[in-house]
Inverse folding.
């Protein structure tokens, strides 16, 4: 076979060494002079092509270490430009090959069927098709530039009579006149009457200019009566033997309005008291590569950096040792999703001093489904941060003070209860002794509330299930009368306002005290079960014993012992309900009330 003596530059993208040798051998069989550049990955190929590496043809394997399949086809076509791409593959997939060719692949060859002649034919045909396509594209470009297809309104007028001699489709569409209407008019008819003298003067001035003339901006009149501002460019021409001028009429009405709007916006940004920073959003890696394009004077005043010192840099210089990196990462993560974000950080000025910054990052759409810029609006919140820090310090001091108050109240109540116990134990009157011990338990109940508050760190709500355990333990110790009493507590973790926790605790104290006193008088052992749970914001308490039960004539509404009176009073304060149920198996006390934050016994002074 006679070798082709034309120089052929081939970019071979193939990671299989055996296939590389085979292709090189086939190429040397058919081309006298061939320069093969071999790369093994798409990344290497892309870097070469982006550096304008000259190739007449690209031979592409479909399975590379860093890309494969249709994604590889799309990527290589994107960077190959006009260079034809031939796929060399070992996979026979008709649907894939058809789709690849439809996307712009020049040819699709199977490695198992490859031969020097087939490879030569594919390379030559692909190159020739590429040249033909390039000539067609050039021809189409020229054709698009023709008068009739110009996207801008164009018309030709006679220099002597001002008559319109020709007009393109863009002018017909833009001005609203039909073409035949245009051809019956002069260019005076598309101007307001008051500017016609200026038009005639201008035409006279440029009548003999042979070069293209930028005539300036003029007011034109549409068929609808709408006035528009038009930038006119004109050049002399010969139209069917008549001296004429061809005019390009660019409607700049909206452009001028937009320029005015942008000037106003620029003025607002420039004179804003808040720092404005505009970043480039065209890079892929958010946060580390976004360069500063613009900063306003407020940025300079806030940071101490000048415009020239920061433009072209990333904003990293504003961060320092006290900058919260977690918050910074959160902001970058949000930006990666092209969402607006807000963040409060400690930032650094040029002189090294810190300031509190509240920054809003907003992406700017480019109109093509992507984003072109980020706008960062920053406020100096140093004063607010200092105030919040001082407020937290003050709050901490108050919390410490409240904690100490609860601690001291608990200790004082403990002292009082101890004194009363000493008084009770030294009292010869058993009735007085019993009453003193009952009061001691009530004081210990209130002390337990303050102890839980002191330990929890919360001074308005507490874990009431913990309080119940402490109450039962205190009463069990105080009422130990040598009997074997077991107890069971089934409880939900319940947060309860102190204004409800105190009366509820007092009720539990009265009920349990009565059980220890009266339920097991004829028993050596007994059982107490406490159930505490919450449902739909209602608290339910049930205390059961297996003692002797209630007297036959017991009626809580009519019973006037101090303990029952306390339970009634405290239940009313809770705006709840209670019941006593007696049976041969023992007694059950039930209490229910709705949880709320309203005031209660703890701040009314009733107990």
């Amino acid at each position: 076979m006679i070798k082709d003596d034309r120089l052929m530059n081939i970019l071979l993208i193939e990671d299989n060494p055996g296939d590389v040798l085979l292709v090189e051998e086939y190429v040397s069989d058919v081309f006298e002079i061939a320069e093969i550049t071999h790369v093994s990955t798409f990344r290497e190929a892309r870097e070469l092509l982006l550096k304008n590496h000259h190739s007449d043809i690209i031979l592409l394997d479909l399975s590379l270490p860093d890309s494969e399949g249709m994604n590889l086809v799309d990527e290589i076509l994107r960077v190959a430009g006009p260079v034809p791409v031939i796929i060399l593959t070992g996979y026979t997939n008709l649907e894939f090959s058809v789709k690849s060719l439809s996307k712009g692949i020049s040819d699709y060859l199977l490695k198992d069927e490859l031969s020097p002649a087939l490879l030569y034919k594919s390379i030559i045909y692909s190159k020739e098709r590429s040249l033909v396509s390039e000539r067609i594209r050039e021809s189409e470009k020229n054709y698009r530039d023709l008068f009739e297809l110009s996207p801008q309104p164009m018309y030709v007028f006679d220099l002597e009579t001002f008559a319109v001699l020709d007009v393109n489709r863009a002018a017909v569409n833009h001005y609203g006149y039909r073409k035949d209407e245009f051809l019956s008019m002069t260019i005076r008819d598309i101007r307001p009457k008051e500017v016609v003298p200026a038009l005639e003067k201008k035409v006279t001035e440029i009548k003999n200019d042979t070069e293209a003339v930028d005539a300036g901006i003029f007011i034109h009149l549409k068929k609808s009566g709408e006035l528009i501002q038009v930038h006119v460019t004109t050049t002399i021409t010969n139209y069917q033997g008549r001296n004429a001028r061809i005019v390009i009429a660019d409607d700049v009405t909206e452009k001028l309005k937009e320029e005015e709007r942008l000037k106003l916006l620029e003025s607002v940004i420039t004179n804003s008291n808040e720092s404005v920073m505009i970043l480039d959003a065209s890079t892929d890696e958010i946060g580390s590569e976004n360069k500063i394009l613009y900063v306003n004077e407020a940025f300079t005043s806030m940071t101490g950096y000048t415009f020239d010192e920061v433009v072209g840099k990333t904003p990293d210089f504003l961060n320092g040792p006290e900058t919260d990196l977690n918050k910074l990462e959160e902001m970058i993560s949000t930006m990666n999703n092209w969402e607006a974000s807000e963040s409060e950080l400690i930032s650094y000025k040029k002189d090294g001093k810190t300031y509190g910054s509240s920054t809003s990052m907003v992406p700017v759409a480019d109109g093509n489904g992507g984003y072109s810029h980020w706008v960062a609006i920053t406020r100096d919140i140093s004063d607010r941060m200092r105030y919040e820090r001082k407020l937290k310090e003050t709050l901490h001091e108050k919390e410490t003070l409240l904690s100490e108050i609860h601690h001291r109240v608990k200790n004082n109540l403990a002292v009082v209860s101890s004194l009363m116990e000493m008084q009770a134990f030294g009292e010869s009157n058993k009735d007085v002794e019993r009453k003193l011990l009952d009061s001691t338990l009530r004081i210990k109940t209130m002390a337990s509330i303050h102890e839980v508050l002191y330990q929890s760190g919360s001074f308005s709500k507490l874990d009431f299930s913990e309080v119940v355990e402490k109450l039962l333990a205190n009463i069990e110790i105080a009422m130990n009368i040598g009997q074997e009493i077991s107890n069971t507590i089934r409880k939900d973790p319940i947060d309860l306002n102190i204004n409800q926790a105190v009366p509820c605790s007092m009720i539990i104290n009265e009920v349990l005290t009565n059980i220890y006193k009266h339920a097991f008088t004829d028993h050596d052992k007994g059982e107490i079960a406490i159930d505490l749970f919450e449902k739909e914001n209602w608290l339910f308490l049930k205390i059961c014993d297996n003692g002797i039960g209630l007297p036959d004539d017991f009626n809580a509404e009519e019973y006037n012992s101090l303990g029952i009176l306390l339970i009634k009073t405290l239940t009313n304060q809770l705006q709840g309900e209670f019941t006593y149920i007696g049976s041969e198996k023992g007694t059950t006390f039930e209490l229910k009330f709705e949880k709320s934050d309203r005031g209660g016994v703890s701040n009314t002074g009733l107990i």
